[in-house]
Structure formats: structure tokens, C-alpha cells
């Protein structure tokens, strides 16, 4: 079968690989009808999340049809249409039973203290072959799969595999109260769903910060106030929108590939931190910090790994709440802790507990409360996956979220 395979930093290929088989009685094998490209995948190709294993199939978002079931998977039938939770979970360990399915004790082959296990990730997360393929093996299928109800399309369901629940997780974790003002840093797909989730939870005002005009336009269509940090100082703009107080909640939906301003008033402050940011990039992307694996403008690491965090902390009111859902690797050890401590901030962060959230979001979509496909901008065949990655990586206008069709 065809699958997108990671070979090295800056080197991904659509390869012919063996079809997956049942390996454990808790497994299922599904035929993918939809998968998608996520910004997290780019971390592995840019080298800002290390220790990928050569030969790993990429991708952690999927919708498909069950073709094989292990003997211990008793809650599905062959032929069921399912959405794949991006993080794997057993469903019966203490973290799973408390709703913390991203911290399952059993899913990660590296042991109960290893933390989150997700598809298509580095050594520390498994590794487990991913979903940008024609078929996939699903470990712990009884909890890692969720049945898609009638009335929810594949296009809707693929957005509930990871990015919608992650955006929801970020807003829910922040404990948004009705009327509060929320700043969302990063208006990529997860940021868009953080905006949507904050508004669904009753936020009185959402401020969206990003350098890409197409992403900001999408945020405005949702009702967010928008700030382009390449044109104005985001902190000054946020002061204006909040009467000088700052926001109640800030959500970092960017992560380690954050970029600083290159134009406008915010560029001057970034220039003063040039050496700090250079060291941060060396810390998180040691094999590509000097652009050793950059090809034709692709696979460039973010040039300011802590920029979104710094702005988020500075934008918050005193005793505000910071919610971090952007991906940071274990190698990232720089954090403006003093700035946060001296504002009495509450900080919450982590990987999304997909299984605990996805059923609720499927029901919201089935009821017509929200249509997640408003964030979907591209639909491409799996056969063109490498070129789709290149366009998404360069943030070409219009490339916000890409669905892949493995059958084409």
C-alpha cells in the first residue's frame, strides 16, 4: 500500500509499504477514507522535535472503515465507520478512567511513565505508524476509535480526529467564564478551533494574533478581533482592546515553531533578542538550526521558539490564566517563568485527551451546532501528499487545513 514515510529531517517520501496486520488482540485494522496534514507533523520534518525513527509512517488524523478486529475489541463491528483519536489510550488504567486519556499508562510501548502515545510520532511516543496511508493498524482500538454517527461526514469527522478537540481542550483547560476576554496566539487550524471553542463556551471577546492575512480573515469570520504582528505591536493592540488591563486568558496555539516579527514595530524588540532566539533554535533543532536540511525554502524551523509564550504571558492581566496547547519537545527548556510568577498567573498545558472530548464534539456537529469544515481549505489525493506538505509548510495563502484522500 502507499504511505507517507519519514526518512530524515527534510526527507519525506510516498513509499510502497506492507499492509498492516493484527498484532495484538486489542488491535483493529482500518481502511482510511480520509487523513490530514497537521502542523505537528511539520515539527518532525523541520527537526524541531527530535528522535524520529526512520521508516515511521507520518500522520495522526484519520477516518476510516474497520476491516479487521482483534478478539478483545468487542464494541465495534467490521464495516463500522470510525474516527481515530490522535492519542492512543487503553480505557481502563487510572488516567484513562479519570479522563486523562493522553496520559494512558498502557498505550506507550516505552512504559507507563513515558507519557503520551500518538500516531506517527518520535521514539518517545512509541513510535506507532501513522495514518497518512491507505490502511492503518490501530492499537487499543476499543478506546482509540470512536464510531462516527449518521449525519456526520468524513470531511467533518477528520477535523474531529485532532485539531477541533485540541482547540476545545485548550479553551476548556483555561476554564473560560462567560464574558471573559481571550487571546489566541496562532491562527492555524488549532488556533481557529480554539477561537470557535472559546466563543461556544461564552467568551465575551476573542483576540486572534497571527502574521498571515488569510488566517486572520478566517478568524474575523468567526467574530474575533484580529492583530497582525508584522504590522503592529500585538501587546499594544491587546491593551487597546482591553482598556489597558490585559486579557483574562491566553491560549498558545503555536508551539516550538513560533516566529518573531520581521516587520513593523514589534521587529525592533525581536532584534534585541536575536541571540536569545538563536540559542533557543539550537536547543530544540540541533540538526537543522543552521538550515542544514532546508530545501527550496521548505522545512525552516521557527526562528523564535518562545515568542508566542512571551507575548501570551505579557498580554495577560494579573492573575490571568495561560493555556498551552502548542507542541513543545522535551528539548525545549527555556521558559519565562519569572515573568509568569510575578503576575500570579495560573498555567495549564498538555496534550489533548482526545477520547474524552471527541464523542461530545461529534454530537455538536451532528446537531448542527457547529460545522468544522469552515476551517478546511484544501482536499488533496494521497498521491500528491509531498507537494501538499511543501505548500502547507511555506504557509502559502489559502493553505490552512488540508484533507488527504487515500483512495485517490
TrEMBL record:
One of its GO terms (molecular function) is oxidoreductase activity, acting on the CH-OH group of donors, NAD or NADP as acceptor. The keyword Heme does not apply. It comes from the Bacteria. PROSITE patterns: ADH_ZINC. SUPFAM superfamilies: GroES-like, NAD(P)-binding Rossmann-fold domains. Residues 270-279 have a biased composition (Basic and acidic residues). Pfam families: ADH_N (PF08240), ADH_zinc_N (PF00107). Keywords: Metal-binding, Oxidoreductase, Zinc. Its cofactor is Zn(2+). Coiled coil: none annotated. Residues 260-279 are annotated as: Disordered. The keyword Zinc applies. Residues 7-397 form the Enoyl reductase (ER) domain. Belongs to the zinc-containing alcohol dehydrogenase family. This is Glutathione-dependent formaldehyde dehydrogenase. It comes from Dryocola boscaweniae.
Amino acid at each position: 500500500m502507499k504511505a507517507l514515510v519519514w526518512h530524515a529531517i527534510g526527507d519525506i517520501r510516498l513509499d510502497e509499504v506492507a499492509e498492516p496486520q493484527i498484532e495484538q488482540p486489542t488491535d483493529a485494522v482500518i481502511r482510511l477514507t480520509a487523513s490530514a496534514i497537521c502542523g505537528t507533523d511539520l515539527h518532525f520534518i523541520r527537526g524541531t522535535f527530535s528522535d524520529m525513527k526512520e521508516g515511521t509512517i507520518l500522520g495522526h488524523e484519520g477516518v476510516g472503515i474497520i476491516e479487521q478486529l482483534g478478539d478483545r475489541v468487542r464494541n465495534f463491528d467490521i464495516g463500522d465507520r470510525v474516527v481515530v483519536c490522535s492519542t492512543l489510550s487503553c480505557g481502563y488504567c487510572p488516567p484513562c478512567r479519570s479522563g486523562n486519556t493522553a496520559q494512558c499508562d498502557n498505550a506507550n510501548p516505552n512504559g507507563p511513565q513515558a507519557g503520551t502515545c500518538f500516531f506517527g510520532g518520535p521514539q518517545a511516543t512509541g513510535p506507532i505508524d501513522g495514518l497518512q496511508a491507505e490502511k492503518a493498524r490501530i492499537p487499543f482500538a476499543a478506546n482509540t476509535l470512536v464510531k462516527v454517527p449518521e449525519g456526520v461526514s468524513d470531511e467533518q469527522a477528520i477535523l474531529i480526529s485532532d485539531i477541533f478537540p485540541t482547540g476545545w481542550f485548550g479553551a476548556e483547560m483555561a476554564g473560560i467564564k462567560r464574558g471573559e476576554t481571550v487571546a489566541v496566539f496562532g491562527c492555524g487550524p488549532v488556533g481557529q478551533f480554539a477561537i470557535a471553542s472559546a466563543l461556544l463556551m461564552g467568551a465575551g471577546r476573542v483576540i486572534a494574533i497571527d502574521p498571515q492575512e488569510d488566517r486572520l480573515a478566517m478568524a474575523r469570520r468567526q467574530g474575533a478581533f484580529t492583530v497582525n504582528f508584522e504590522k503592529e505591536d500585538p501587546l499594544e493592540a491587546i491593551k487597546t482592546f482591553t482598556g489597558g488591563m490585559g486579557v483574562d486568558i491566553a491560549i498558545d496555539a503555536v508551539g516550538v515553531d513560533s516566529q518573531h516579527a520581521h516587520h513593523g514595530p514589534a521587529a525592533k524588540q525581536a532584534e534585541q533578542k536575536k541571540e536569545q532566539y538563536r540559542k533557543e533554535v539550537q536547543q530544540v533543532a540541533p540538526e537543522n538550526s543552521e538550515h542544514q536540511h532546508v530545501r527550496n525554502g521548505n522545512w525552516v524551523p521557527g526562528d523564535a521558539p518562545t515568542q508566542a509564550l512571551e507575548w501570551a504571558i505579557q498580554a495577560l492581566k494579573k492573575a490571568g490564566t495561560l493555556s498551552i496547547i502548542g507542541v513543545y519537545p522535551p528539548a525545549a527548556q527555556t521558559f519565562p517563568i519569572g515573568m509568569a510568577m510575578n503576575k500570579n498567573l495560573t498555567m495549564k498545558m498538555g496534550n489533548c485527551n482526545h477520547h474524552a472530548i471527541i464523542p461530545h464534539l461529534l454530537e455538536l456537529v451532528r446537531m448542527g451546532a457547529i460545522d468544522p469544515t469552515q476551517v478546511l481549505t484544501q482536499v488533496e489525493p494521497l498521491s500528491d501528499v509531498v507537494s501538499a506538505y511543501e505548500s502547507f509548510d511555506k504557509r502559502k495563502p489559502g493553505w490552512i487545513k488540508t484533507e488527504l484522500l487515500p483512495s485517490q
